Amino acid sequence: MPVCRINIKIGIMAKRDLKQAFDQHVELTDYFTGFAVKRPKSAAASLPQEDHQTGDSQTQLAEIAQQAKDCCKCGLGGTRKNSVPGEGNPHARLVFVGEAPGADEDEQGRPFVGRAGQLLDKIIAAMGLKRQDVFICNVLRCRPPDNRDPKPEEIISCMPFLKAQLSAIRPEIIVALGAHAAHTLLKSEKPIGQLRGTFHDFYFDENEAPKKLMPTYHPAYLLRNYSDENRRRVWEDMKVVVAELGLPVPKK
Ligand code: URA
After folding, report:
1. Which of 209, 212, 208, 206 is nearest to 185 (CA)?
2. Does ligand 1 come within 6 angstroms of the Cβ of 98?
3. Is the pTM of the predicted complex or chain greater than 0.85?
4. Is ligand 1 within 6 A of the CB of residue 106?
5. Distance from residue 54's CA to the centre of ligand 1 (Å)
6. Fewer beta carbons within 10 Å, N or C terminal of the chain?
7. Which backbone phi and psi does 47 adopt, to 5 degrees?
8. Does residue 137 have a pLDDT over 60?
9. Average pLDDT of the residues in 53-69
């Protein structure tokens, strides 16, 4: 494990409002890398996705994973056992973005391998897909101690990894699992219960038509608040995703 320096700015940053800090981050990275969650310039809105694919996504993902393993940008670098970059199909049409690794993920260095992961595996199977068909990652690549919520500065530090992964894969659809993923990707503070159920536009790039983002409840929330109603809500969301992918929509 790399020796990670504690960022002395953390105390100051923690007081900052998440939205303000996030907006600032998006503006800066937009300026430097051309990646932003914002409206496209209409003339270029319908360019096919292949035109924007540079390099080999598998190689890019491997490089990003290595950088995540070496990362010490926030305090979590000093408390993790393993960083959890994410895994799956480099050409996935569908990417799931969760919140942050838990204890099992920290132990194994793999995303969604604990109880919530087992439920996610079931959801993916019910959609008629295999785990190897999709890509799975998180807003954070390191486990917050005691599974506490991600801090704004941690989300900001980790955003370049998520953006680089999504840009390398260029999925057609992103599923945001839970409020943290939905709020981070959509720059929205609306409750997940209001965001879920319909697609939202997600812009990789101002020169490209938006991709679709479906927020839904996090599998861990579903485990904690298990009811037919909540299960049905998640399943309805996933059926919309399956239909949009042009795959057979399961009957149940
Ligand atoms: N919860 C998450 O959000 N991500 C994981 O990888 C595991 C549990």
Report:
1. 212
2. yes
3. no
4. no
5. 29
6. C
7. -60, 140
8. yes
9. 90
